[in-house]
Amino acid sequence: MAVLTSTRTVRIGLDIGGTKIDAVALGAGGEVLATDRRPTPTGVLDVVSTASAVVTGLVGGLGGPVHLDGIGIGIPGLVDPVDGTVRNAVNLGLGPDPVDLADLLSTAVGGVPVVVENDVKATTWGAYTLLAPPGDLALLSLGTGLAAGLVVNGELLRGAGSAAGEIGHLALDPRGHVCNCGQRGCLETLAAGSALQRDWPHGDEGRSADHLFAAADAGDPRAGAVLERWLAGVALAVRTLGLTCDPSVIVLAGGVAGVGEPLHRSVSQALRRQARGSAFLTGLALDERLALLPTDRPVAAIGAAATAARTHPGAFTPGR
């Protein structure tokens, strides 16, 4: 008697960062079926070639008949999710001219639909998918830059120019450091991982943060002063999110978030210090809304796959 084998519907998410590509294959219910990680090459053609190889490897490794229903990409730079182009992803060798990444990868994998999303927004949607908060969610990404992702009323907020959440470029101090955007005294120059690294240079942002927290904990007075100043900037960024969209959860993410619980605890303390003397801020209890991005799953890749599912629903239901 013939045995009928059902075809499994799969979505793939790719988080293409400056140093690595994290990939995940999700089943129709949003469950993680397989993951992969590879170094990120430089240049458009090599990025597409590697991404195509990752997709092929994930699908081939699942066994049995598989229907690849779509691919989502999270990538840094200026992304147009409507036409699938990306530009100014400097770490990937992509300059100011738009690159049709969606079309290039779709062609390389046989015409499967591809959706491209900014990496912070993909991570935000992944966090929303996994944490399932009771209300809105904001994600604060503390990396080389500083940016936020916002989910409001169940929808990823982009804005007219896809600039929603770019709070790192709020110019706060006209006498402050020059920002990469050309302004002076932006929030990014106070609270990004690059701001911490500038004042405490010990490798990249993540290693500098680890070293700074350890030195401050060991009683180094200069480390303590640098950390307190930086935490005040991060707390200001959290307050900005709390006062503009009032989310139920504010997730700390990015390279500096690898510090883990000490970061969560320290930012919470900084928020409580800033709220002293203000019944209004105290009543908001922003410190109680903080959460860390889960580290046991490829959140950005999951978010990219789930974003693709929302753009091209097909037979796929993301795990919410």
TrEMBL record:
Superkingdom to which the source organism belongs: Bacteria
Family: Belongs to the ROK (NagC/XylR) family.
Keyword Endoplasmic reticulum: no
Xref: Gene3D superfamilies: 3.30.420.40
Name of protein: Putative NBD/HSP70 family sugar kinase
Alphabetic keyword roster: Kinase, Transferase
GO terms for MF: kinase activity
